[in-house]
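Q: Focus on the shape:
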Amino acid sequence: MQIQGIKRGQHIELLEALDIPDGALVSLEVVPERSPTPWWQALSKMRTEIEATGEGLVDDLFFIDLRDHQLGRDVEL
């Protein structure tokens, strides 16, 4: 059986349920994945880090003038 998990400190959080009884002895082979982190895992990590620092995501001034206020092209339907 092969299953993925995420290392958090000295624990590995499994991404799927295991069909074995609680307390069963298991043997593990840990192989770090070389593929890019899925966006939802990266997002979760970012949110956790932001919550831990107690700071906001970005400075409020970051969003000033971010939007393009031009009307764009005319569209005829």
Remarks:
- Residues 8 and 77 are 54 Å apart (CA to CA).
- The mean pLDDT is 80.
- The helical segments are 39-53.
- Strands lie at 5-8, 11-14.
